[in-house]
Amino acid sequence: MKQKGINRIVIAVWNLTEAKSYFEQLLGAEFAPENTDGEAASFGVQVAMAWEAGIELVSPLPEVPSRIRDDMEETGEGIKGVVFAVEDADSAMESGEKLGMSSHYHLDYSTEQIDEKCQGRFDMYKEYFVVAGAPLNTTILFGEFIERS
């Protein structure tokens, strides 16, 4: 089954451990084991995913430059992005380009990567990372996700 609508929100925090504890207590969120393959680290962040709660926590790595760090130093912690699950990520990106958006990163995971990074939750996992201007003024992601049955 393909997901549609909001897949998750991206929340930037300074202390990942404290934030995970907060959402575990507040919502009963269960966070997946963190990946250590360096993909998130290449962006200067560490990530914690609570798939069922629809939460992705991102925290800047100490003393590593990143977009998240720059944004948090200016605007503080909080919601930094929304992941929209769409029928066709490529078509959604084409529509975004017509509105002046551009993708600054693209994921299209293989089955092996899905098993490793997404705990085997999907048969397909593709995302475009987009900085959106008005009226959104935030990072959005167009994602095409097919849940594994």
Main features:
alpha/beta; 4 helices; 2,3-Dihydroxybiphenyl 1,2-Dioxygenase, domain 1; 149 residues; 37% strand
Q: How are strands sequenced across the largest beta sheet?
A: 2-3-1-4-7-6-5
**What does the main sheet amount to?**
7 strands, mixed
Helix content: 25-40%
Q: Got a strand count?
A: 7
Describe this structure in words.
- A hairpin with a 5-residue loop joins strand 6 (122-132) and strand 7 (138-147).
- Helix content is 26%, strand content 37%.
- The protein has a seven-stranded mixed beta sheet with strand order 2-3-1-4-7-6-5.
- The protein has helices at residues 16-27, 67-75, 89-98, 111-117, and strands at 5-12, 45-50, 55-60, 78-85, 103-108, 122-132, 138-147.
- By secondary structure, it is an alpha/beta fold.
- The protein is built from four helices and seven strands, in the order βαββαβαβαββ.
- It has a single domain (5-147), classed as 2,3-Dihydroxybiphenyl 1,2-Dioxygenase, domain 1.
Outline the secondary-structure elements.
Layout: E1 5-12, H1 16-27, E2 45-50, E3 55-60, H2 67-75, E4 78-85, H3 89-98, E5 103-108, H4 111-117, E6 122-132, E7 138-147
Parallel strand pairs: 1-3, 4-7
Antiparallel strand pairs: 1-4, 2-3, 5-6, 6-7
In short:
This protein has 149 residues and is of the alpha/beta class. The protein has helices at residues 16-27, 67-75, 89-98, 111-117, and strands at residues 5-12, 45-50, 55-60, 78-85, 103-108, 122-132, 138-147. Helix content is 26%, strand content 37%.
